[in-house]
Amino acid sequence: MTEIQPNSQNLEDTATELLVKLRQKQGSWVEWGQAIAYLQKNGYNPQTIFEATGFEPIQQNQVIVGSQVYASMEKCGASAETLAYYKQKSSDVLYELRGLNQEDRANTADLTFEYKLDADVVRDIAKAVKDFSWFPNLPEGFSKHPGDAVAYQSWKFAKQKSDLSERSRLIAKGLRFVHSESARKQLEQLLMDFSVAPKVAPPILPFYRLESDEDLPRILPVIGELPLTPEVLKAVPLITEIQPFRIVKFAGEQAWVSLPGWKVLLNAEDPVVVIGNSDIFPNPHQSKVEAIMIVIDRAQREWDISNYFVFDNGESIDFQWFETAPKIPLLGKMIVLVRPKKVLDEEFTKDAWQIDE
Predict the structure, then answer these.
(1) Do 53 and 149 sit in the same domain of this protein?
(2) Is residue 162 part of a domain?
(3) Among 57, 70, 71, 84, which residue's Cβ finds the most Cβ atoms within 10 Å?
(4) Shared-domain flag, residues 27 and 125
(5) What residues make up the domain containing 54?
(6) DSSP 1-69
(7) Do 253 and 322 have their domain in common?
(8) 246-255: which pairs have CB atoms within 8 A and are 24 or more residues apart?
(9) Would I find Chaperone among this entry's keywords (predicted)?
(10) Number of domains in the chain
(11) What is the pLDDT along the chain (357 residues), one digit of tens a residue?
């Protein structure tokens, strides 16, 4: 598969040609993903592409990511049958493999092709393969094959179940995808061994809620020491806060945010902040998805079972609790998740006389 090459002599003509092909849906979805990636790289935003082609932004992202997964499958030796099948359909299935490394993408795609699985099933399989890849040494009896990764996940969960119907369902799932004979024997042993292994619970997520204005002080620019000229005073730009955390951007493309002096932050050696949504972490008591600040201490890179860690997920950073020491390098420990302050009526609180009463 050849990548689309930019026409340096006439970028506009190249873009127009691609937009026409997308509007008429010429070629395969893999080519659509390449074309949309090219357009976005050269200044076309998703809304403009949608208006010109009918591809909604969420579809654009799916075919772009799916085409990247397809390219890695080609590179790492997915079967010819798998490549031919997925070149014509199922971009949503390949999208679910985005979190795997290139070799695992190719091998897992072969598995999903063999069983003709849909995206919902593949999402669970991709998670099983990803979790399996973190083991520094393969569990006894299981091979590196993605089918054995699914079998191991089923075997592990089945051992933790006392309900026989649920236990049987998990064993059947493992036997469906198992690859090696040794892994099959591990699953079949559970049909006679009904002992229940204790489940190791992940640590409680360290959420904090900003409750008062004092918890979130306003950040102001420091101009300098007196005496100062009027020109210096006027030269300071207006500082605009980005809600809901009052993030401030300074010249030089560096943003800063002020957090309270919680002990966990004072003890951190090299803390940094990233912004995300609360739904990227498992939380059964979560009532709504909201923006959160994720504080990472980059100095704490030694694994322990009581914390979540950040790691390189290939194309981006990701967060995970590891039940055992992973073989991948850790980039830091997640020490605090900060929720924004709840505001019942923002306009009401602006009037001082209403607050006083």
Answers:
(1) no
(2) yes
(3) 70
(4) yes
(5) 8-132
(6) -PPPPP-SS-HHHHHHHHHHHHHTT-S-HHHHHHHHHHHHHTT--HHHHHHHH---HHHHHHHHHHHHH
(7) yes
(8) 246/216, 246/218, 246/219, 247/275, 248/219
(9) yes
(10) 3
(11) 444 555 455 788 888 899 999 999 999 999 999 999 999 998 899 999 999 999 999 999 999 999 999 999 999 989 999 999 999 999 999 999 999 999 999 999 999 999 999 999 999 999 999 999 999 899 999 999 999 999 999 999 999 988 899 999 999 999 999 999 999 999 999 988 888 888 788 899 999 888 776 676 776 777 666 566 667 767 767 777 788 887 887 766 677 888 887 888 888 888 889 888 888 888 766 678 888 888 989 999 999 999 999 988 877 888 999 999 998 889 999 999 989 887 665 555 555 544 444
Residue 353: exposed, middle, or buried by beta-carbon count in 10 A (0-12, 13-18, 19+)?
Answer: exposed
In a domain, 57, yes or no: yes
Question: If DSSP codes are grouped into helix, strand and coil, which group holds residue 123?
Answer: helix
Please name the residue that has the structure tokens 């914390």.
307
Residues 128 and 139 in one domain: no
Answer whether residue 1 is part of any domain: no
